[in-house]
């Protein structure tokens, strides 16, 4: 799931023109943190509004992954933050949970 999200289904990492290994490592670190944030927001959003299922298949699979569900909400909140601050604040509050605070502390 992480590899798909870094490539064409999310962050489009393959379009970068970076060639220095140190810069690529830093970019991957930021993208992994973004992936974790989007996944957590997707889980949180699914608790509030469940992910709809595809009914045309026999397997009844969800229409979205947690990553895509959260990624779309974050993108919408960032693009429309000038209209309404509430969705933006909710999305950012997911990043300030104790789990992420521990990760950010360990990066230093």
SSE topology string: HHHHH
- Please provide the count of β strands: 0
Low-confidence stretches: none
| N-to-C CA distance | 27 Å
The number of helical runs is 5
Describe the main β-sheet briefly. none
Helix content: 55-70%
In short:
Helix content is 62%, strand content 0%. It is mainly alpha-helical and 108 residues long.
What does this structure look like?
The protein has 108 residues and is mostly helical. It has one domain. 62% of the residues lie in helices and 0% in strands. The chain contains 5 helices and no strands. The chain has helices at 2-6, 21-48, 66-79, 86-95, 98-107. Helix 2 crosses helix 3 (66-79). The longest helix is centred in the first third of the chain and has 28 residues, at 21-48.
Relevant terms:
mainly alpha; 62% helix; 0% strand; globular
Strand and helix map with partners:
Elements lengths: L1 H5 L14 H28 L17 H14 L6 H10 L2 H10 L1
Helix pairs in contact: 2-3
